[in-house]
Amino acid sequence: LNEEQSIAFTIVAEHVHQLLLGNNPPQLLMVVHGQAGTGKTRLLEAITDMFETVGSSERFAKTALSGVAACQIGGKTLHS
Description:
single chain, 80 residues, 3 helices, 49% helix, 5% strand, globular
């Protein structure tokens, strides 16, 4: 991951850590945007792997604006 991706990943990882400690942080909503080829999918894959590793994949929802984008990330459209 590049520097910006690592920052985003760290925000999510710290939030998950707090959840697992039972600290009940407020829900984290994060929007990842950028032009094609900027690493959005790579970041989502790293976050997905982290959620699976800690056994909390049911807490992670991947959404996109279009059906094509949702299929590419293994998620759902925002309106679904």
